[in-house]
Design goal:
This protein is α/β, with parallel strands linked by helices. The protein contains 14 helices and 7 strands. The protein folds into 2 domains: 89 residues, Winged helix-like DNA-binding domain superfamily/Winged helix DNA-binding domain (Arc Repressor Mutant, subunit A); 155 residues, 3-Layer(aba) Sandwich (Rossmann fold). Strands 2-1-3-4-5 form a 5-stranded parallel β-sheet, sandwiched between helices. It has a two-stranded antiparallel sheet with strand order 6-7. Helix 3 packs across helix 6. The radius of gyration is 21 Å and the shape is globular.
Length: 292
């Protein structure tokens, strides 16, 4: 195949390439999946960094980046990177979240271990970056769709284990507080499957999971899909095991300060989902009273 033919078959914009990566992710080799994940999570890095830097961050050889580009129809890596740069320029964005976090963590690493007040300041700054990124990553359309999924569900099932457990438990508790029929899948006594097996086509599963993804959460998503329930996934990657089967994915990337990962952005998103649903529910009730 000539370079001209390859270029003609390649995605013509950053958005088209992103869609192609998501569509073909499962068919890629493990090495190419590592690059795909970086491309989806760090488009600014793909646009601006050298192949040596990108390959180091992906944990692959530079030749793998070239192979990745050719897999999607580009003659080489530079043509693919140009697409990411065009997308970056059209969006008028500055440094990407990943780059800002790296600069922040490098600055923290150079500091001597300080007292409690200094550690607090570091976590506040790290979480501020994560919250700013959340506002850019989760669109108004995403939030509207998520609230609609919750509103239309007969019962909302919520699942999340390990680091995601606090987010899932908060979501379940808060939805119950605003009178949404909710079932929290806590997996007590190893009964995760039994708790999920009552889910049906009129229900919604909200699944929360971050790398490394809890097997129980992945299984719960698979069971929900088998039973034709809708799935709202909250995850750190668009290609995580709970993202592909989902009706909607809300992409959340948390801060990491001195090897400790936060949950500030996830809890903020959970609060917004609950309050957004409460507003919609109250609006619907108000319309019902007026028509009555």
């Amino acid at each position: 195949m000539t370079e001209e033919t390859m270029a003609a078959n390649a995605p013509a914009s950053a958005d088209e390439l992103r869609a192609a990566i998501l569509d073909r992710y499962e068919t890629l080799s493990k090495r190419l999946q590592q690059i795909a994940r970086y491309a989806l999570d760090e488009p600014n890095g793909m646009a601006l960094e050298t192949l040596a830097v990108i390959s180091e961050r992906c944990g692959v050889q530079p030749s793998a980046i070239v192979r990745f580009a050719k897999t999607f129809g580009y003659p080489g890596a530079s043509q693919m990177q140009r697409l990411f740069r065009d997308g970056l320029l059209s969006a008028h964005t500055g440094l990407g979240y990943g780059e800002r976090v790296r600069h922040f963590n490098e600055a923290v690493a150079r500091k001597p271990n300080g007292g409690g007040a200094e550690v607090l300041a570091e976590f506040v700054e790290g979480n501020t970056l994560a919250l700013e990124n959340l506002a850019q990553t989760v669109s108004e359309e995403d939030m509207s769709k998520a609230v609609k999924l919750i509103d239309e569900a007969e019962t909302v099932y919520v699942v999340g284990f390990r680091r995601s457990f606090p987010v899932a438990s908060y979501l379940a508790y808060s939805l119950q507080q605003v009178n949404k029929r909710t079932l929290f899948i806590d997996g007590v006594a190893g009964l995760t499957r039994q708790q999920v097996q009552t889910i049906g086509p009129k229900d919604l599963l909200i699944a929360v999971s971050y790398h490394p993804y809890a097997e129980e959460t992945v299984q719960a998503v698979e069971m929900a899909v088998e039973r034709s329930a809708k799935v709202l996934s909250i995850s750190d990657s668009l290609v995580s095991p709970i993202a592909k089967p989902a009706s909607l994915v809300l992409h959340v990337r948390e801060s990491e300060v001195r090897t400790f990962r936060s949950l500030a952005a996830s809890i903020c998103l959970a609060q917004a989902l609950v309050i957004g649903f409460a507003f919609e529910s109250n609006k619907a009730k108000g319309k019902g009273r007026k028509s009555g």
